[in-house]
Amino acid sequence: MAVYINSDRNMDQHQASSKRVASLSLDMDNMWSYMKTHGDQGWDSFPSYLDVLVPRVLDFLKERELQITFFVVGQDAALEKNHEALGQLAAAGHEIGSHSYHHEPWLHLGSEEEIESELAEAESEIERATSRRVIGFRGPGFSFSDTILRILARRGYRYDASTFPTYIGPLARAYYFMNAKLSDEEREKRKALFGTIKDGLRPVKPYCFQTSAGKLVEIPVTTMPGFKMPIHVSYLLYLSSFSKALALSYFQFALKLCRLSGVGPSLLLHPLDFLDGVDAKALSFFPGMNIASEKKLEFVSEVLSAFSSQFTITPLEQHAQALLSAQGLRVVNVDAQPSGSQQPLEHV
Fold first, then answer.
1. How many domains in the chain?
2. pTM (two decimals)
3. Residue 313 and residue 307 in contact, taking contact as beta carbons nearer than 8 Å
4. DSSP 8-class letter at 273
5. Three-class secondary structure assignment of 216-239
6. Cβ neighbours for 115, distance < 8 A, ≥ 6 positions apart
7. pLDDT tens-digit profile of 233-285?
8. Containing domain of residue 196, as a range?
9. Residue 92 maps to which CATH number?
10. DSSP, res 334
11. CA-CA distance, 20 to 36, in Å (whole number)?
């Protein structure tokens, strides 16, 4: 059982008089990483769309005067062909975080030595490509474990953003693998992709992990308070394929619930929110790839306009600092939980 200390009442009172701080991030999953997870051949030649994606996203963010966090994959940073594109992210003033080295959603299955090596290699290559030292982490496919948390704290990370508190992870996983050709062993590795039903028990509000190596702020990928339904942009785009008005109303309702429950949302973007089937033909299996990129950009713009009208959007590093400055963050003592436990429990 997770051990909680303190409350978040002081933080709520501190921010009640002004627009609550929120955050925006983009997981830099490249074409090869989607193919690898899906079990498609050819991924190991590392096909990339970064040269198309990065200028498009940077122009989009600059027009809206937004600074966000990009979670970069170490394998991409290790390839010289990607250095110019990744360097542009840092040059534009955006925060750079780590999304692991190999982008394997089964990262949590590794030994402590394997996970440490994975994180260290990613840090080194990302810093070489961007001249930025990473202090934030998001697990690939929301891969997460107590061991990863302890290693992150030991390596000096300030925050983790790997938890995804929703009950529908198994449905998303089933959809993703509907047409995949995977062996039983490969499916076993991927059985925690997008999380399990138990992840719906995790908190939506940010909190703090206390580990034997120190503290680590946890900023979950925000889901709808109470209902725990996804509100990240890829999910909204999926809803928009049925009804744009419904998707935007759904998001507005989620933002209202966030305000009422005292949640400063951390909204997640993916590369495919900006790309279509012409840009990435190998990913036609992914939901929404039949929507033209121009239509996607229009929709994402409306989503972020609604978001910024109600919250102050920052990179995750600033979000974490604001949470710490406000004080009163709930603390989950990882070392007080039974071995292997991954269930900090809270209804909100």
1. 1
2. 0.89
3. yes
4. G
5. EEECCCCECCCCCCECCHHHHHHH
6. 107, 108, 147, 148, 151
7. 999 999 999 999 999 999 999 999 999 999 999 999 999 999 999 999 999 88
8. 4-336
9. 3.20.20.370
10. G
11. 38
